[in-house]
Amino acid sequence: MQQPILLARLSRRGLLQGLATLALCEAVRADEPATISFDGLYKSFGVLGFQFSDRATSMRGQEVRMLGYMAPPLKPESHFFVLTREPLAICPFCQSDADWPVDIVVVFMKAVTPMVSAGQKVAVSGRLEIGSAIDAETGFVSQIRLVDASFHVA
After folding, report:
1. pTM of the model
2. What are the φ/ψ torsions at residue 48 (nearest 5 degrees)?
């Protein structure tokens, strides 16, 4: 009886190289930040306000990854932008955190960065901060932020 062609061609060295590659891929994946979605940010909404989800609260201060769309920036290059669930035509910043939309996150970049088109999906990684805060430079109010962030087109 003949061995299947794949097994006949598989050497011990090839098997060990394949296992080593698999282990390396797993190690790289383990170093990626945990992903949190817009749906995973809040536990509840109501007339008395909102509550952050247990997941968001437990991830406070940790490196996370989010997918979304860059809202139209105020300038072509900036150190911050607004991440939205869906593409928007206008910037969604509000004057008060009482009116804060639940489907946006402010992203503060590590450095001034060229922005991308509002219709392109981006993957953002940064340290999660939650709770009302006012940016000293812009005066913008936010409830959820990713700081020391970077992004790439997804």
Report:
1. 0.73
2. -90, 5
Q: Which amino acid is at 31?
A: D
What is the spatial distance between Cα 136 and Cα 3, in angstroms, rounded to a whole number? 70
Q: Residue 141 corresponds to which tokens in the numbers above?
A: 């109010």
- Which residues are CB-contacts of 79 (< 8 A; sequence separation ≥ 6)? 108, 109, 111, 112, 113
Residue 115 scores a pLDDT above 90:
no
The CATH classification number of 5-153 equals: 2.40.50.140
Distance between CA 36 and CA 54 in Å, rounded? 12
Q: Kindly list the domain boundaries of the chain, sorted by start residue.
A: 5-153
Which residues have CB under 8 Å from 117's CB, separation 6+?
Answer: 70
